[in-house]
Amino acid sequence: MDWTAEDVPDQSGRTIVVTGANSGIGLEATRELARNGATVIMACRSAERGADAADGIREEIPGADLRVEACDLGDLASVRDFAAQLEAEIDVLVNNAGVMAIPRSETADGFETQFGVNHLGHFALTGLLLENLGLETEPDSRIVTVSSGVHERGRIDFDDLQHEDDYDKWDAYAQSKLANVLFAYELERRLLTADANAASVAVHPGYANTRLQLRGPEQSGSRLRKAGMAVLNTVVAQSAAMGALPTLYAATAPGAEGGAYYGPGGLMNMRGTPERQASSDRSYDEETARRLWDVSSELTGVTYDLPEPSADVSA
């Protein structure tokens, strides 16, 4: 399908939360959602950078309905504060914020940062916003979780989830992105079991030109690697606007399906317009998904008011 930003349907009357909305994929998705009439709540680690990004969108789209709120996915107290003050009903939650291939560090709660921000922060946020998502109202709400093609090399190491014994930045990133897909599918199974008016969808942006790729070299102090990555972003990557299309499709398209995985359909799934794709074999392991769910709930202290998946549902 040649689905582009021009195909985003009218979003008037809809309220959408986007994490990491001030840059990259999140910024481009926010721009197009606002252009099409949505009220977008920009959940950003830095409210100041979020406000600057919102001002930029308003210059391009006068009247854009944007709210900027602080939400640091690396600090569960910040996640809880954001959820507690969000009184509005929301139609879509886009779990987009993330970090990639950075030197080992820990979140405010002592989690390895990539696993803590990319997966645990969004697991907690989604659970805390279930009531806002209106699971018993029409039309269906959606939870979109942004993963990466790198999830295909990932595995969930329950013996060393925080990579304390052996840290490889790419292995840690791959684990966090596999966790994103496992979470999206497990959430869909639980929503189906609850007969909820909601769908959980996983996406990946392909290789998009954002600052995400530069943060690892910046944090490790490697000017050579940063320069090399900047060249790759310019020569090989598609634009951030193109990378946002799978997210926009999952969030807005009438044909987007719960339990699906969408990504660019072009060269090596790295660029192009969105299509439904198969994720890695490990991502469909329901036993791993349920164990990860239980561990994530224990680590974050967030429980979901959803039943265990019944045997006759699948995602």
UniProtKB/TrEMBL annotation:
NCBIfam families, A to Z: PRK05854.1, PRK06197.1
InterPro entries found in the cross-reference section: KR_dom, NAD(P)-bd_dom_sf, SDR_fam
Domain (Ketoreductase): residue spans on this chain: 14-257
Coiled coil: none
UniProt entry tagged with the keyword Oxidoreductase: yes
Name assigned to this protein: Short-chain dehydrogenase
Alphabetical keyword list: Oxidoreductase
GO molecular function, one term: oxidoreductase activity
Organism: Natrinema saccharevitans
